[in-house]
């Protein structure tokens, strides 16, 4: 009530003065009926403020301006979340397409690759004769529909198409079911366990290409699918560690991890020499983040956001930044980070977007204001005068999302049983098309690093004491003792990873390595393109190729070997496979249907 003006009393019409706060007991305040003018005048603006401008017909209050409108996004909507999720997923797709593009696919799985995919598909078809559906379930790939006589062209087309679509989604920040479904089909044709991409299909509208498709708000079912995924990834990784290697239980695994991980980088060299208490803290915090933090996702908005932030910052190691900086774990880190983004709503992500009436953040603010007033939704992008979405479309979308939730729940039954089982397995699928899977990482940590080093010799006699053997150098894996560890993440040198895995087994378990040896004996251009250094480049091919088994250790910073410029110290363990000539491999190649490479003179 304005102070000071004469007002009529509610009882007898006597005039008096309303004095707000005239005394400690409020005796100066007159009693007024709710319908009197003295009440109506001040309370109408108050109602408008409480209703946030309820009703489109309500005129703006005097003195209002755009600057007075709210600038903070309210919690509970996920328009910006969808944009961030799509761009993050598109980044992973782009990286994968770049890794498996023309430079990566053909030398590995092409017509003359180390493990030709056409030969693999023929073996699958022979295993399921006349049962096309069974073959597709065993190896879901669009390559079944293509001409196998031109597999190199097929692989290039898949990689370039995937790179083009994912680049569009990354730049535009929008997609539809058709584009995301195509990306998932292309990617799952070459890679298994793509649950994240499958959920990404249902983030989008069917046809519309808009960053804010008003007819298709972000589905809570899909968001919970992403949260359920990151929960299983992290909890599965924590449980497999506790049940697996003793060093995770006594907190000593990080004493070895940096040195023995697949492809170390320069930061790993220094982190390996961290104090013992720091390694214990790393292991202990790892258990907290993988066994305790995942349950935060079910404890409300703030705890879910805290879960997402911790997983982004601390993913599977004390710091996600440390994990990315300390090892070339390639796109695996980034792919694991994608579902964590579903824990943030528009209010949490608003700071990442610029403000302004025409900006994405400003449009989301307008959408939230309309929803608060109960205004009907516009059909496509934001437009105040557009018509509302058709009820049948909303019913169809909700039906699809409910069906997705039921499907994920049904396929999760064996996955949860595996998590609770003492015999837990990791990175396994229990159904066709790898839609819901079980995950885990570093269930056991090697105490020593062993490497397979390929060597070639032009000497006529491989066993002669004077035979000179020269090392082949790979792009990133340890070899030359004086070469600094590489930093390539998120790029993925697949052959280097295969060589790391081969060092744990014998060449009988890895037939492709003999295929690689035969190609090196012929100076095959595709095979040598996968290497960082071919000692026989510009020379005749070697007469012999062999593989030696070494134990590698980091040199000590400031020590004698480091002073000599060596990052590594190695000790020979023995032969991995004996010296071989090209003619020695003729029968082996023929039995596996591999064409014998022809020696190419440089």
From TrEMBL:
Give start and end of each Lipase maturation factor 1/2 N-terminal domain.
Answer: 192-349
**Endoplasmic reticulum found in the keyword field:** yes
Q: Where does the record place Low complexity bias? A: 19-37
Q: Where is the Lipase maturation factor 1/2 C-terminal domain?
A: 435-578
- Protein keywords: Endoplasmic reticulum, Membrane, Transmembrane, Transmembrane helix
Please tell me where this protein is predominantly located: endoplasmic reticulum
Compartment(s) of residence: Endoplasmic reticulum membrane
The Gene Ontology CC terms held by the record are:
endoplasmic reticulum membrane
Q: How does it sit in the membrane?
A: Multi-pass membrane protein
Q: Which InterPro entries has this protein been placed in? A: LMF (IPR009613), LMF1/2_C (IPR057433), LMF1/2_N (IPR057434)
Q: Residue ranges of region Disordered?
A: 1-70
Domain of life per record: Eukaryota
Q: Which GO terms describe its biological process?
A: protein maturation
Q: What does this protein do?
A: Involved in the maturation of specific proteins in the endoplasmic reticulum.
What name does UniProt use for this protein? Lipase maturation factor
Q: Please tell me the species this chain comes from.
A: Galemys pyrenaicus
């Amino acid at each position: 009530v304005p102070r000071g003006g004469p007002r009529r009393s509610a009882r007898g019409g006597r005039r008096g003065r309303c004095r707000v706060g005239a005394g400690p007991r409020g005796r100066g305040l007159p009693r007024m009926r709710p319908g009197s003018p003295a009440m109506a005048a001040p309370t109408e603006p108050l109602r408008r403020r409480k209703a946030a401008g309820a009703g489109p017909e309500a005129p703006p209050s005097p003195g209002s301006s755009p600057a007075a409108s709210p600038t903070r996004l309210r919690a509970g909507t996920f328009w910006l979340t969808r944009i961030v999720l799509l761009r993050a997923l598109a980044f992973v797709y782009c990286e994968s397409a770049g890794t498996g593009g023309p430079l990566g696919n053909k030398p590995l799985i092409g017509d003359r690759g180390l493990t030709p995919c056409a030969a693999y598909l023929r073996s699958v078809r022979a295993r399921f004769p006349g049962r096309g559906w069974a073959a597709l379930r065993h190896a879901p790939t669009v390559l079944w529909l293509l001409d196998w006589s031109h597999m190199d062209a097929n692989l290039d087309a898949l990689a370039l198409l995937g790179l083009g679509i994912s680049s569009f989604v990354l730049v535009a920040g929008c997609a539809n079911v058709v584009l995301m479904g195509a990306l998932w089909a292309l990617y799952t044709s070459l890679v298994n366990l793509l649950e994240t991409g499958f959920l990404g299909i249902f983030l989008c509208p069917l046809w519309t290409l808009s960053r804010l498709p008003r007819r298709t708000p972000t589905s809570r079912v899909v968001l919970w699918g992403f949260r359920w995924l990151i929960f299983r990834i992290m909890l599965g990784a924590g449980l497999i560690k506790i049940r697996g290697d003793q060093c995770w239980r006594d907190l000593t695994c990080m004493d070895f991890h940096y040195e023995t991980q697949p492809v170390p980088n320069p930061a790993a060299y220094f982190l390996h020499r961290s104090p013992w208490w720091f390694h214990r803290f790393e292991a202990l915090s790892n258990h907290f983040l993988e066994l305790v933090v995942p349950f935060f996702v079910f404890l409300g908005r703030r705890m879910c956001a805290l879960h997402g932030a911790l997983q982004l910052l601390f993913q599977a190691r004390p710091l996600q930044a440390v994990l990315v900086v300390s090892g070339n774990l390639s796109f695996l880190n980034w792919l694991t980070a994608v579902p964590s983004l579903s824990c943030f709503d528009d209010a949490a992500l608003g700071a990442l977007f610029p403000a302004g009436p025409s900006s994405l953040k400003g449009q989301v603010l307008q959408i939230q204001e309309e929803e608060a007033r109960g205004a009907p939704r516009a059909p496509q992008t934001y437009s105040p005068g557009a018509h509302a979405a058709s009820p049948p479309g909303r019913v169809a979308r909700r039906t699809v999302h409910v069906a997705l939730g039921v499907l994920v729940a049904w396929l999760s039954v064996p996955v949860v049983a595996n998590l609770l089982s003492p015999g837990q397995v990791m990175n396994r699928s229990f159904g066709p098309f790898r839609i819901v899977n079980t995950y885990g990482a570093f269930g056991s940590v090697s105490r020593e690093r062993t490497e397979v080093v390929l060597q070639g010799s032009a000497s006529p006699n491989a066993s002669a004491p004077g035979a000179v053997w020269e090392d082949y150098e790979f792009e990133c894996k340890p070899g030359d003792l004086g070469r600094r560890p590489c930093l390539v993440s998120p790029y993925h040198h697949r052959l280097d990873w295969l060589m790391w895995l081969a060092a744990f087994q014998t060449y009988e378990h890895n037939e492709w390595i003999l295929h690689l040896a035969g190609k090196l004996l012929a100076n095959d251009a595709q095979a040598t393109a996968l290497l960082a250094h071919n000692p026989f480049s510009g020379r005749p091919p070697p007469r012999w190729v062999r593989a030696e088994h070494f134990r590698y250790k980091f040199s000590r910073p400031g020590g004698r070997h480091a002073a000599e410029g060596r990052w590594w110290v190695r000790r020979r363990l023995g032969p991995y496979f004996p010296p071989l000539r090209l003619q020695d491999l003729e029968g082996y190649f023929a039995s596996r249907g591999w064409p014998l490479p022809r020696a190419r003179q440089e």
